[in-house]
Design brief:
heterodimer, A: mainly beta, six-stranded mixed sheet, 11 strands, about 0% helix, globular, B: mainly beta, seven-stranded mixed sheet, four-stranded antiparallel sheet
Chain lengths: ~110, ~120
Amino acid sequence: QKEVEQDPGPLSVPEGAIVSLNCTYSNSAFQYFMWYRQYSRKGPELLMYTYSSGNKEDGRFTAQVDKSSKYISLFIRDSQPSDSATYLCAMRGYQKVTFGTGTKLQVIP
Amino acid sequence: SQTIHQWPATLVQPVGSPLSLECTVEGTSNPNLYWYRQAAGRGLQLLFYSIGIGQISSEVPQNLSASRPQDRQFILSSKKLLLSDSGFYLCAWSTPGRTSTDTQYFGPGTRLTVL
């Protein structure tokens, strides 16, 4: 079993939809959770960084962490074609950062 | 602000040829530096990380090596490339003086194709 599981997609949604991206994990040592956005043929860029369980909001983006269920989510409101990218979750504990494989999102105008 | 550069952006090399990819960081001193390889459907694979000049930790034994000749320069090398070395290579940095687990910021990447 992988430490971090992420549905690869692709996920296609119409412009303006609410998008939900998710990751599950198995390692209880993970304490810090991140979401990266990666455009095609570019390096990942950090979107959100959270530590505690609960929600963190930044503009149209909301990161949600449920440590009891070992489940994290990224919500995108009012999705735009410019949000089309691959979204990677990442988690770190005591030793290193572990990345999900990424979910490819396409927002259709 | 900090900036991370990688070059070349794209590289096509024959099997058995040598490799040298370079990464430099601006705007910070003594950053932690990382090399990752990203393959389709397999996520980011950590190859090497460094917490200082000349200090390299290898995460996965393979056909590659890394060096850090200067504080903000990180080089990924190979003496003889294999077909399986093809992929998207990413350099990243994190806050100096912290552990290797701190939040990482990525460069633009190098796409390597070995033929």
